[in-house]
TrEMBL record:
Protein name, UniProt field: DUF559 domain-containing protein
UniProt organism field: Blastococcus haudaquaticus
Domain DUF559 residues, every copy: 167-228
SUPFAM superfamilies: Restriction endonuclease-like
Top-level taxon of origin: Bacteria
InterPro entries per UniProt: DUF559 (IPR007569), Restrct_endonuc-II-like (IPR011335)
Length: 236
């Protein structure tokens, strides 16, 4: 619709993300696009227009129309408010392989003008290792706390080096893992498998702290639970 009403427009922001396979916009959300500064078209219902100049290499074609490249789209999303949502978006782009950490970091250093510090901050907090938006939010809570930074997507092995499990976040020296609940309870048919996995982790001497969506809204209590697990005597 945006291209029909504004032929010079380029899909950008969340709308561009959807074209790149990252579902950040709903069916009822406005279409986001960027138009040249000289474009004088009036307001269009259901279309949010940003007027600015785009470098030629920031635009490509996809789905029959013009759209910002994955890198340009990621940088635009780094401006999202609150910061947490910007990092969620960047993690999804990184996880999908649409951009690399090096590409993103280098491009962020070249951004100047209003919002450049915010973009660099968001990029510095994204790593692409988390497997869901909620895991990204959990990671940001852990990083912002006084806890030592955990290893992400850590592979736990037994004393004889056999694979036990891969956990969301881990402090290997304490044998403490943090798992977001979606991994364990998302599919009922996996309950038996999940219980076996938990049994194997405990047999290997690991303590597992489970985190729910509700826990993310009570950060102090969540951090205290994890801190207590880290202070507990280590299993042999």
């Amino acid at each position: 619709m945006a291209r029909l009403l504004l032929p010079e427009a380029v899909l950008s922001g969340r709308s561009a993300a959807v074209l790149w396979g990252v579902d950040l916009a709903g069916a009822d959300d406005d279409v986001e696009c960027t138009a040249p500064l000289a474009c004088r078209a009036g307001a269009v219902r259901g279309v949010r227009v940003s007027r600015r100049a785009l470098a030629r290499d920031a635009v490509t074609r996809r789905g029959g129309g013009r759209v910002t490249t994955p890198l340009r789209t990621a940088l635009d999303l780094a401006r999202l408010d609150p910061l947490e949502e910007a990092v969620v978006a960047l993690d999804r782009f990184l996880r999908a392989g649409l951009v690399t950490p090096i590409e993103l970091a280098e491009a962020a250093t070249e951004v100047v003008g209003p919002g450049c510090r915010r973009i660099r901050r968001a990029v510095s907090l994204a790593d692409g290792l988390t497997e869901s938006p909620q895991e990204t939010r959990l990671r940001l809570i852990l990083w912002a706390s006084s806890l030592p930074r955990p290893a992400a997507q850590y592979t736990v092995r037994s004393a004889d080096r056999a694979f036990v499990a891969r956990v969301d976040f881990a402090w290997p020296e304490h044998k403490v893992a943090v798992e977001y609940e979606g991994i364990w309870h998302g599919k009922r048919q996996n309950v038996a498998k999940d219980r076996r996995r938990l049994t194997e982790l405990r047999a290997a001497g690991w303590t597992v702290v489970f985190v729910t969506a509700a826990d993310l809204h009570d950060r102090a209590t969540l951090v205290a639970r994890i801190a207590a697990a880290l202070r507990a005597p280590r299993s042999a």
